[in-house]
Write a structure and sequence with these properties.
heterodimer, A: mainly alpha, 11 helices, B: 214 residues, four-stranded antiparallel β-sheet
């Protein structure tokens, strides 16, 4: 399919310039003009990312896929509501998150142990420091996630968080929302958001530390089953902040 | 959460302003415990993000195709079969009704009593046809109806109206008509393209005195 990248040919209809490499705004304009192909390109560009966000909230593949389907329809119907003030994917992520939150409210059920949101975590205690050490020394995250048991452990830990804690982790780590955006979404003060995020992370880190430690012990006990990645993994604390999922 | 925890978290999340950031990085350089906490936050985030990405990558492409099929059905499906189409208004339907009207007019002509000729002006001031006429089928002005003309079914001549009452209001002619067993008053409006639009104003309550079509 030809891509007309000539900026001077502005007289062409939107469908003549649409391709998989077109900018989001060009695709949005083409969608508004009724170009079905542009809509499909735009959604396919983000479908796995929005699925990841939905899965982060719902922790269930089929539920997350249902939400993705609902979002495609909703986005198509409300594309005129995208004013262009933020990036398209930011707007899209919010649509997904809102659908997930509605889904959770409709199907609310308790999963695992509910941690209290107001757990106090003072300045680094021995337990917190130990949890940090275990997490860091478990190895490179990318390598860790190649192992099914680690992937399973991370999934379990997220499921065991309270709904509020899991939601705020998803908003921050998967959606990349700022504190102000989260405060607006959760309709609370920025200070509350920071406190909630702090506790959510501490709880998650404790859960991860326990599971990673257990898995490390299990691996030590059965060295013949260890994967090459884990045997090469060495504690290498990262020094730079990792960005949240962004396109 | 103490102040240092809050600052660490804000630094990690990119929420500090530039000056605060520079100051915190100085503090970070001097504090190994702080650096360990930062590294733990980094690893935790990488695990959460990585897990979500792995899960997203695991969904087969065919599954997304299924979703697309359903979305496209929802968004672009044609109207359901059997649903009554929205009928356009009479004026819009009029040109399409023309063949039907022609046939009805032909049948009416066969059985029609000669139009009353009182007030009919044959001086050459032709009365306009009583119903909408396609430009190619315009009857000859001033032509009158005779029973014999009905034999030529393929060359329909419409009955001339009996202009017992003729009013013109802003280019709209209102006339009496006796057509296909109904009589009443109509308005017809001619446009620049030669198309005449006809509107029934009122129908006579008394029985029509013309014979119905056979």
């Amino acid at each position: 399919m030809g891509l007309n990248s000539d900026p001077s040919s502005t007289s062409k209809a939107p469908q003549d310039v649409v391709s998989t490499e077109s900018d989001d705004q060009i695709l949005v304009d083409a969608c508004r003009a009724g170009d079905r192909r542009a809509f499909r390109i735009l959604m396919e560009r983000y479908q796995r990312r929005i699925y990841a966000v939905a899965y982060g909230y719902l922790r269930n593949r089929e539920d997350a896929l249902d939400v993705v389907q609902e979002c495609f329809i909703k986005v198509h119907q409300h594309l005129d509501g995208f004013r262009g003030g933020s990036s398209f994917y930011t707007w899209l992520y919010r649509v997904v998150a809102n659908r997930c939150i509605d889904h959770i409210r409709r199907n609310r059920r308790r999963r695992g142990v509910e941690y209290r949101d107001d757990l106090r975590h003072d300045s680094p205690t021995a337990m917190d420091a130990e949890a940090d050490r275990r997490i860091i020394h478990a190895g490179n995250p990318a390598a860790l996630l190649q192992r099914k048991e680690i992937l399973g452990a991370v999934q379990e830990c997220l499921v065991h968080l309270s709904e509020n804690h899991r939601n705020i982790i998803v908003m921050r780590e998967l959606e990349g929302m700022s504190y102000e955006e989260m405060a607006e979404a959760m309709q609370c003060a920025k200070g509350t958001i920071m406190s909630r995020l702090f506790h959510a992370r501490k709880n998650l880190q404790k859960l991860l530390a326990e599971r990673l430690d257990l898995d490390a012990d299990a691996e030590d006990a059965a060295p013949e089953t260890s994967s090459p990645a884990s045997s090469n993994a060495k504690a290498s604390p990262t020094s730079s902040s990792t960005k949240a999922v962004t396109p | 959460m103490n102040e240092l925890d809050a600052k660490l978290m804000a630094y990690f999340d990119g929420e500090l302003d530039p000056d605060e950031r520079v100051e915190f990085e100085r503090q970070l350089a001097d504090d190994p415990v702080l650096r360990q906490q930062l590294a733990s936050l980094d690893t935790t985030r990488a695990l959460v993000v990585g897990e979500a990405q792995r899960e997203a990558d695991d969904v087969p492409a065919a599954r997304f195709e299924q979703i697309w099929d359903r979305v496209e059905d929802e968004l672009y499906a044609p109207p359901k079969a059997g649903a009554a189409p929205v009928r356009p208004g009479f004026l819009v339907r009029l040109p399409r009704l023309w063949p039907t009207m022609m046939a009805a007019a032909a049948a009416a002509v066969i059985a029609l009593v000669v139009w009353p000729r009182d007030g009919f002006d044959e001086s050459g001031t032709a009365s306009k046809p009583a119903v909408a006429v396609a430009p190619t089928a315009a009857p000859a002005p001033g032509s009158s109806v005779t029973p014999g003309s009905a034999e030529r079914a393929d060359d329909v001549v419409l009955p001339d109206p009996a202009p017992t009452e003729t009013e013109t209001e802003s280019g709209v002619d209102i006339e009496r008509i006796d057509f296909a067993g109904r009589s009443g008053r109509i308005a017809h409006i001619d446009d620049a393209r030669g198309t005449t639009t006809v509107i029934w104003i009122e129908e006579d309550p008394q029985p029509v005195d013309s014979e119905r079509s056979l």
